Amino acid sequence: ARPFIKHEEIGGIILPASTREDPMKSTVVCVGPGWLNEDGKRETMRVKVGNVIYHSEFAGVESSVRTKDAFGEKYLIMHETDIFGIYTGARPIDLALFGNRVLLEWETAPDEQGKVLTPEGTAKERYYTGIVLVKGPKCQEPDLRIGKRVFWNQYCSPKKIEFGEKRYALLKEHDIACVIPKRVEIGVLST
Questions:
Q1: What's the pTM value of the predicted model, to 2 decimals?
Q2: β-bridge mates for residue 166, sequence order
Q3: Phi-psi category of 50—alpha, beta or left, where left has phi over 0 and alpha has psi -120 to 50?
């Protein structure tokens, strides 16, 4: 149990690496006491042992931990800031998000209607639209609400989630170019 004690001192999270089917989905098996913020106060961990989490594909460090129950079993040790959210249901889009992350239903353009929007004198960029499904607690834009349609740029590198016949995007609030007023009709791009 020594690695767990040392781990708790650094305030991280331990996940079993060998049981992960999806490289971005894991079950938490150990949680530290939290980390120190800029004010020197300990932040309470939002995840608990047993939570199923959605995290960055490149999050954490894989390490072997020796215990009396598991000799050299591999675990993923990560900081809580690498976690996008906690699964709240069985679907891959049932998430309680962390920070300023936003989950969108990615709108698909009808055939032949996708357009490249280019302000005069600028390079061509692709923009997409989506409907806000879930937003994290640190989102600050007051007009960014569940059910709102938003406009976002192709270069924000969203985490893409395919479920059923729909596509979803997980991105940060600052990657959203604007909330689209109801009275505005725009062309939707598809890829």
A1: 0.71
A2: 163
A3: left
